[in-house]
Amino acid sequence: MSPLLTLRxxxxxxxxxxxxxxxxxxxxxxxxxxxxxxxGAGKSTFLRVILGQEQATRGIITLDGAPLPPECGxxxxxxxxxYSVFPHLTVLGNVVFGLECSQSPLLGRLxxxxxxxxxxxxxxxxxxxxxxxxxxxxxxxxxxGMQQRLAIAQALIKxxxxxxxxxxxxxxxxxxxxxxxxxxxxxxxxxxxxxIMVTHDIREAFTLGxxxxxxxxxxxxxxxPHRYGATAVYDLPLVKPAPADDAAPAVAxxxx
Amino acid sequence: MRWVNRTIGRRQAFALGAAPIVLLAIGYxxxxxxxxxxxxxxxxxxxxSAMASAVWKMMQQPDVLSGNLVFWADTLASLQxxxxxxxxxxLMALLVGLLLGVLPPVRAMFGPLVTGIAVxxxxxxxxxxxxxxxxxxxxxxxxxVIGIAPVMVRDVAGHVGALPREQIVKAQTLGAGxxxxxxxxxxxxxxxxxxxxxxxxxxxxxxxLISAEAIASDVGLGYRIFLVRRYLAMDVIIPxxxxxxxxxxxxxxxxxxISRNAFPWAHGAAH
Lengths: 256, 271
What we know:
The complex is a heterodimer. By secondary structure, chain A is α/β, with parallel strands linked by helices. Helix content of chain A is about 30%, strand content about 25%.
């Protein structure tokens, strides 16, 4: 089976500063890739390049065999650490938004039977993330964990080919974070998702992922640290039939 | 207790807020009474009774020349000019502000122009307006629009431009294009800010209205004040100024109320 997402010799440079160098990667459909690495190693840049928010200066990225268009699109969903939801829409409105955009290009709004159908679909998705009772709240009225649940439901309603998570649970309490881990694992299985998650929490990376990618610089020039970029220094497939169990994986520790 | 930690109750706040106003009123009365004790025909600090009877006459008795009830004719004319000016400026701010804020090419093309217009003192343009548009209503409304629109445009554009990049990216991953982002993401979030900008523009709008009326007009609150100044008619000027203040306060409060009712999410919606 050909991989879903392929990166070939991808470089990202800002002027003479090299952030990512020579990243080669194949991501199989259905995998859960955790990306870890020290601060400033280009984890977020890596995610933004796949998202289409930034362009690779060199190299080719293909999704389903086709080159990635140079801007964001509905084939790649995303959940950021914050600002992922629209503050002016209710919970239901936030999720219906994705359906309205594709079905109503001119007004961006649905009416009548179509609206009913879209709301029913959105309500189902909200129930799946545990927000069935909060559909008429505004995001500002909810806790951080609930807002991230909403952001996930919002992304999943579009059935993206890949779901990109940028430290999605970084700002949450440990207890809430454990709930969110269970939720994302369940959704990953239920909807056959392919997930790429950037995190700075190594435990989280190994708990959730079927594969852990460590980004770091291979070489370091002390006089010009910006001249070498980061790449995948460790690429660890985790043999894990049941991703929900918390057992420590039997592979080497990544450089962190 | 430290002053920074004091909480003020509703009643207390009312009493505290009223105190300086009442004191000012009493001070005025004492001064006016003193002047009238020396000279019963004093015009500089008229007594409240004189002000009331002067304004009552303007409200009740038709003007000999025009046949209008002067007070109401002035109010209507001024509010019409102000409303038109504010309305046009608000629409411009919304439209241009959105385009500038959301679309980088539009910002690159028209941003410097808007900035350039914004730094011109509007009153300096008044002669141009009078020459180009005549001395009628158009020039007065145009002065208000030119005076307040650039600031409002820049405020709305700045607010829209400062929306988190994450929101714009997220909208695109949900299938939205430029138009839908403008309509569904930027526009609703610009509206509460637009009302704030409108509220802050009320003061300058009144300034430009009164200026335009003072220079060339035959009816209006500003016109009347500057007309009766020739006769030292403080008994008309002071009530007129108070009436303008009252109208401005009502508008300010109304805009705030509209914003809270229409956009609860922008006012820290009740938990």
